[in-house]
Protein 1
Amino acid sequence: MPKHEERDRMDDEVLTQSVLQIRCFPDPVLKKPAEPVECFDAELLDFVERMRATMRMSDGVGLAAPQVGESRRIAIVEYDGRSFVLINPRLLEQRDEQTGEEGCLSFPGIYAEVRRPAWVRVEARDERGELHIHEVEGFLARAFLHEMDHLDGKLFIEYLSPLKRGMIRNKMRKRAAAPR
Ligand SMILES: [Zn+2]
């Protein structure tokens, strides 16, 4: 998910080198359910670091591995000074509802109102394999659910009306077909 407010871009050269390419709709990898992570090794640590660099360069608050072409159950969320790594996440409990504007780094510049639970309890491993229980609310709950959906090949436009969803799909397909 992108963030709305401006932030300083990090133009560090090392960061630029480790940045991954973000896949945009209709890239088929976005529709594919991701595979659980079984091996918590140095490669995973490095990959999560590169995801973080990619998300920060894109002014994002969340990024899921399928969005960088890797069908693995890994997502990261950073918002309001808090940072989360969600590996093999599982939704344990949800409460209440919220409606708010949502975007996605795989749909640049497109925002829509989406209704989601207002509070969630999520179990997930971090990049070292440690199990955590996260209880988050408001925008963080929205970001968690948005990124966790990506791991099931589900996109935020699926919560919209067929008309709105169709308009966004057409726009994205035209963009993908346009010469660069
Ligand atoms: Zn997204």
Protein 2
Amino acid sequence: METLEHIAFDRRLDVLDMVYRARTGHIGGSMSCMDILCALYYRVMDTEKIKRGEADRDRFLLSKGHCAEALYAVLADRGFFPRERLLSYARFDTALAEHPTRKIPGVEAATGALGHGLSLAVGMAAAARRDGSPAHIYVLMGDGEQDEGSVWEAAMAAGKYGLENLTAIVDRNRLQISGNTEQVMPLSPLAARYRDFGWEAVECSGHNSEELVRALRLRSPQKPVAVIANTVKGYGSELMENKAEWHHLVPDEEQYACIRAQLEQRRGAVSRG
Ligand SMILES: [Mg+2]
């Protein structure tokens, strides 16, 4: 069986191909959040139940919707739609747009206007609890997204109502479109801030599957859980890692070859379990 890290590198290679072919995308943030998505979709959530659309299925929201290509690569590999459809990413005649919508199998809501996903998740979690459903709601936000005031309105509500069926994950890569998060709008100590809003909060490596799975399975009575996943923007390619400009850059032919080689090398370095 392949390790989760190995699978995540395969999906990063999918993303690289999608962005290179489409000449658009958000490659840096897609690389940083890939281990989080893989932990959720290959280990933590029951994806068959989600495919069947069962009322008490777990739900996932990609609040940082601009990294849609990362989600599409995972959904296709998990059988939500044929992998060939990834070739259509960002074309005019496709549902696989640069932000996800409900036209895509497995997508619960249109997202990517930043700062809205946590509010949606709070509503879904409150509804699930009202209905006596065992569904758990997961939402993935960017760290730059924490600058949106609406995130903190939703965080207050989740704490007040003790939504223990809600997990918010922050892709803590410390970069946003305009630079370092601590210079643009300081967030640290982010876990402590969520605790102050009535949440359980944990920090973990966002590139260690074991740590991620443990954090994503954490439950706390009467409290929503925040997982601050420490990640590297552009993870897997030294050409891109920790460089803010790779938020939205598209590799040229030479860069594509370099990134592909670096990703393949790193994939080879992660152990096969
Ligand atoms: Mg970021």
